[in-house]
Amino acid sequence: MSAPTALQGPAESAIGGTRRNLLKRLLRNSAFLLGGCTVLIIATASLLAPWIAAHEPNATQVTRRFEGPSREHLMGTDRLGRDTFSRVLHGGRMSLLFGVATVAFSGFFGVLLGIFSGFFRAVDEVIMRFIDVLMAFPPILLAMAIVGALGPNLVNAILAIGVAQVPGFVRITRASVLSIRELPFVEASTALGSRQVRVLGVHVFPNIVPTVTVYATLQLSTAILAGAILSFLGLGVQPPTPEWGAMVSEARRYLRLDAMAAIWPIGALFFTVLGFNFLGDGVRDVMDPKLGR
């Protein structure tokens, strides 16, 4: 029993060293730090919105509409006298939820289809032709068609954008699997009689995780922006629920009276998307061996 224990020690030490080295490289990357801090601040403020905001997001005061920033209303009020600061914070919760749920949905099905397509040649042609059909439609138009058929609400919008993002995950996963499948250690494992499920779980899947992680991080910003577009068009989150795209849509009719009612949610959306882009770029730079050197 002592031999396995002796062998496990160096292996665990090597794994721990690799993780510590990865963490050090992430903390040295300026893009990762800038994006991570931006996303962390916005996510924390959005999650703590009920405790940070002094007013209910849907509480109306018609006699105090279109007020400018003040101590009581830090970002002023909108056309119905609702506190803009509270609505921006609560709107962040919906936008972040939309982005995370969409990427989780598209990533799960996209990676699954990509693994099957890249590893099992019998189904590769069928899956890729289906993906080609999906990619023939512009993503936002495909999402609008799906929401138009199912009805405008948050769940259907997540489903629509998720379906539009699946082809990207399928293609990047398939490309990674095709390259890993031909490596010597995978061929050796197959030659020794390992089952395909074991080869996939032990050798293939762990090696595609970094690539998929980087792509998913970058797709978060795209999903949040697409969700805001659908809400702006009236196909996503429905009023009076606060959401940045829906808030801009409501405020666009009153830009001459109060342009700030639209600028605040646009600014929040801008910094959120920018933060996720920086975060994704930093993770890509650290996990890509070529860029790391």
Helix count from the secondary structure assignment: 12
Shape: elongated
Helix content: over 70%
Order of helices and strands, N to C? HHHHHHHHHHHH
**In percent, how much strand structure appears in the residues?**
under 5%
Give the N-to-C terminal Cα separation. 40 Å
Report the radius of gyration as a whole number of Å: 23 Å
Which stretches of 5+ consecutive residues score pLDDT under 50? 1-16
Sheet/helix structural class? mainly alpha
Main sheet attributes: strand count, strand direction, barrel closure: none
Q: What number is the mean pLDDT?
A: 85
Count of individual beta strands:
0
Task: Describe, in plain words, how this protein is organized in 3D.
The protein is mainly alpha-helical and 293 residues long. It has helices spanning 2-28, 30-47, 49-52, 84-119, 121-135, 139-150, 154-181, 184-191, 196-232, 244-251, 260-287, 289-292. It contains twelve helices and no strands. It starts with a helix and ends with a helix.
Quick rundown:
The protein is 77% helix and 0% strand. The protein has 12 helices and no strands.
Key structural traits:
293 residues; mainly alpha; 0% strand; disordered N terminus
How are the elements arranged and paired?
Elements lengths: L1 H27 L1 H18 L1 H4 L31 H36 L1 H15 L3 H12 L3 H28 L2 H8 L4 H37 L11 H8 L8 H28 L1 H4 L1
Helix pairs in contact: 2-4, 2-11, 4-5, 4-7, 4-9, 4-11, 5-7, 6-7, 7-9, 8-9, 9-10, 9-11, 10-11
